[in-house]
Design a protein that fits this description.
The protein has 304 residues and is an alpha/beta fold. It contains ten helices and nine strands.
Length: 304
């Protein structure tokens, strides 16, 4: 005869702990959400605050977004230099809500923000389009992405210690995947890395430094504002003098300025997307974003 199971207080506590739901995690932008989702795996599905196609330069926090933040137990973002609209809402969250600013994570490499225009022969660094003294597009460097993954796994383990081993294992697999992609990108970009090109706005410095690329400048300082006639004339002249192979626009912003810069130059037109605006959110987005940047650069910069 089987003995009945006795639900002692200790056993009830064990059941309660085992049944504890995962924390509510919110990530600010799609590339960061992707790395978070890669670390959380099947344990939980993080929420993306800024939907695909939006840009942190012009994002306006809606009531639904404010509600999402209010319910979050952990919010992961780059920092005030990028998502300035989130600074006040995050500061007003309760003390029990954790906030991870990835810009301050251990092992992250920082670069100064640069002025728009042609960089060769001038001091290029400045306080650029609200980014403070640093370039906040940190996720475009594989080394920074690995540092982010470590920081994400660490804070998840603190917030949700029950699933600590799972987060650590997922982080290890994510870092290995980043390593493999970095090697492949380096191999593919090697034949074109010396080719001069111009970008719409200076969002790619971390990618360019990581892979030693030949960008010569950016058309606009603030992607939300049209550059003045003097700057446009100077950039157009430099495109011709420097033999720029390709001028890149971005899908989030109008390309009429790019068309004007390219007119009569013989330069090709390409598109670079630093946030994956047309990609499906999830653990693969960061990897697809990096592959798409590589595809665009190789196809536009390769010799005819």
């Amino acid at each position: 005869m089987k003995r009945p199971l006795l639900f002692t207080p200790l056993l009830l506590l064990a059941f309660s702990v085992a049944a504890k739901p995962p924390p509510k995690v919110v990530a600010s932008i799609a590339p960061i959400h992707s790395l978070v989702a890669s670390v959380t795996g099947e344990a939980l599905t993080p929420e993306l605050l800024m939907p695909p196609g939006s840009t942190p330069h012009s994002y306006a926090l809606r009531p639904s977004g404010a509600g999402t933040l209010a319910e979050a137990e952990l919010v992961i973002w780059i920092g005030e230099n990028l998502e300035s609209v989130l600074a006040k809402p995050l500061a007003s969250l309760g003390a029990e809500a954790r906030k991870l600013g990835l810009m301050e994570s251990i092992g992250v490499s920082h670069l100064p923000a640069r002025r728009a225009g042609i960089w060769a022969g001038q001091e290029p660094y400045a306080d650029s389009h609200g980014h403070g003294n640093g370039d906040p597009h940190l996720w475009l460097a594989p080394a920074n992405a690995r540092a982010f993954v470590d920081a994400i796994a660490t804070v998840l383990a603190e917030v949700d210690p029950e699933r600590k081993a799972l987060y650590r294992a997922n982080a290890d697999r994510t870092r290995q995947r980043i390593d493999a992609l970095e090697s492949d990108i380096r191999r593919r970009l090697e034949p074109v890395k010396a080719q001069p090109y111009l970008v719409f706005h200076d969002a790619y410095q971390h990618f360019e430094q990581a892979f030693e690329l030949g960008s010569i400048g950016a058309i606009v300082e603030d992607p939300e504002h049209h550059p003045g006639a003097r700057r446009l004339a100077a950039v157009r002249q430099s495109v011709r003098e420097r033999g720029v192979r390709c001028v890149f626009s971005e899908p989030q912003f109008r390309s009429s300025v790019v068309d004007l810069i390219m007119e009569g130059s013989g330069a090709r037109h390409g598109v670079l997307d630093p946030v994956g605006s047309k990609l499906s959110p999830g653990p693969d987005l960061w990897f697809e974003l990096m592959e798409n940047l590589t595809d665009s650069l190789v196809s536009c910069l390769a010799p005819e």
